[in-house]
Description:
The protein is of the alpha/beta class.
Amino acid sequence: xxxxxxxxxxxxxxxxxxxxxxxxxxxxxxxxxxxxxxxxxxxxxxxxxxxxxxxxxxxxxxxxxxxxxxxxxxxxxxxxxxxxxxxxxxxxxxxxxxxxxxxxxxxxxxxxxxxxxxxxxxxxxxxxxxxxxxxxxxxxxxxxxxxxxxxxxxxxxxxxxxxxxxxxxxxxxxxxxxxxxxxxxxxxxxxxxxxxxxxxxxxxxxxxxxxxxxxxxxxxxxxxxxxxxxxxxxxxxxxxxxxxxxxxxxxxxxxxxxxxxxxxxxxxxxxxxxxxxxxxxxxxxxxxxxxxxxxxxxxxxxxxxxxxxxxxxxxxxxxxxxxxxxxxxxxxxxxxxxxxxxxxxxxxxxxxxxxxxxxxxxxxxxxxxxxxxxxxxxxxxxxxxxxxxxxxxxxxxxxxxxxxxxxxxxxxxxxxxxxxxxxxxxxxxxxxxxxxxxxxxxxxxxxxxxxxxxxxxxxxxxxxxxxxxxxxxxxxxxxxxxxxxxxxxx
Length: 490
């Protein structure tokens, strides 16, 4: 602080207080200088943090791809050579809508030419088969309404009347099994709100519907698939490998977490109040014998066998490469080079160009070199590198489980892809409004994704479930047909 030398002009009557006033002014000037220095320091910190945030992208952090504007995404590197034309490429399999047999068409209209297109003369019919042109159209949609007339009978003995009961399998409400299954899929699988679903039913299907009625239908669907959901959930702890991921959501405007565990032939969702290990155990049960594919979140680190996701790690390595620190950038390039070599051999193994033993032999030196780079970063004294490498080194075996156990995937992309529809649902609906809504969401997402993995029709399955509920029968299991699972896996 530069000391200020100036005399304060005071009126004559204030001269006795000159020393006090000058001391007071000097104290305020000193405080102003201190605050100016603090502002300069904080300004530099803000600029530094702003620079870091601006450098974070979905390619070097865990930011979702939706946070980046489409125009901000880098352009793909074009391969040298002939410019690729727009549309289907040479050798691409052509997709055509096959003509259905004529006897399956609603109408068949023969069309004959009136006259010669050149001279206008009369034409003689030819015996050649005509060219068939088919137009697909929706019929006028009219709901089927079944009425059941429940008559009463009078007992001359005791004087009371008895009303007839509904036939077995007939719902006590006004919603049939196909309508319930369709509405349940409309709100869960196709991510429509209650109001939009009711508008769809009213405007397109001519079924009078209010948002309140869709909630009742939702509860019916949720109850019908409760048992199959629990059956799938109980099978999780017997799986050799699970892909696990989680994403924030809301329930009653409070923060919650949507979890997913994916096995080879089914997926199970669960909504819990936190992101703790207790939530993980509540979903998958005892997973001591399971290899979990996951990210590097702390709730997974409990001594169990893990496979850390290399897709997440690649983004973290890219963050090192994007750093302005030369030392950090160099280590990032070294690690990324080894990552590229590793996955080049992994692609060769998946394409069956090399055997499992050959892949292990080729990947072993890459693993050792990668670990040595982590050790170099840990001993570098650079805070950024030390923090990054010290997180990985003590548990580096979690990076290489897929080298030791055949059949383990090195990434958690399976869980990421399975969770994506649920994340889109959350973005559109802002979560659920009740515990019952959360149970419906986790069950309908489980059924939807499991049917996709098993190559089943989710709508037909829900129709069967609703019919079983209305008939007071057990719901169809998604694990009962083992032959279907084997065929789908093949």
